């Protein structure tokens, strides 16, 4: 995978547009992308979308970002969507490899109940969304055969740290976020899975996106997440060189 596009699970128009974006994978978002009052609607919409999207071949891989393990929403998310057969789960606010193991156990039970092959659903954790999570990045190696990558994020970590900004005046990441980026990269490589770079928030800045993709590829990342379909072409182009190796 080179590109992974976030799309809200409860927005039919955006889901349809994402399917035609050229992204290698879609991250169908039931967490921050869906308001609390619309969670159930988002689950139902997502079930229908996954079944329909399976008819498009070839199509993108379909990952679902569920609500965190520490919430009372995660089990409801999994119960609603696993039987539709998503390719993987994106786990937010993941603290360590133990959380991956915990999620893997939940998936194994549901796969058995739905008649799906054991291990069919992969796990892609977001591994830097709390301060405590930065101390767990060595724990993912050997945690689960479902683990396919490790991705890092900025905004939740910034909130947890109480940071006033994530970037300096020249646009470079400040030291705490450079640390999170680096630890994700080395943690993923140590675990033998794909390191996935965070989103680029300035949607209209193609030059800035390209520069950030090139820096990520240079340093060893193999893919990048996106928040807009217009970012996919650049991400795919830059990371294709790594995919071809």
Structure description:
It is built from 8 helices and 8 strands, in the order βαβαβαβαββααβαβα. The chain has 245 residues and is an alpha/beta fold. It has one domain: Phosphoenolpyruvate-binding domains (TIM Barrel, Alpha-Beta Barrel). Strands 5-4-3-2-1-8-7-6 form an 8-stranded parallel beta sheet. α7 runs parallel beside α8. The two termini are 13 Å apart. The mean pLDDT is 95.
Brief characterization of the structure:
With 245 residues, this protein is of the alpha/beta class. It contains 8 helices and 8 strands, in the order βαβαβαβαββααβαβα.
Which key phrases capture this entry?
alpha/beta, TIM Barrel, 245 residues, eight-stranded parallel beta sheet, single chain, 41% helix, 8 helices
Write the layout of secondary structure elements.
Blueprint: E1 3-8, H1 12-19, E2 25-29, H2 39-53, E3 61-65, H3 74-81, E4 88-91, H4 97-114, E5 122-125, E6 149-151, H5 155-161, H6 175-191, E7 194-197, H7 206-219, E8 223-226, H8 232-244
Parallel strand pairs: 1-2, 1-8, 2-3, 3-4, 4-5, 6-7, 7-8
Helix pairs in contact: 7-8
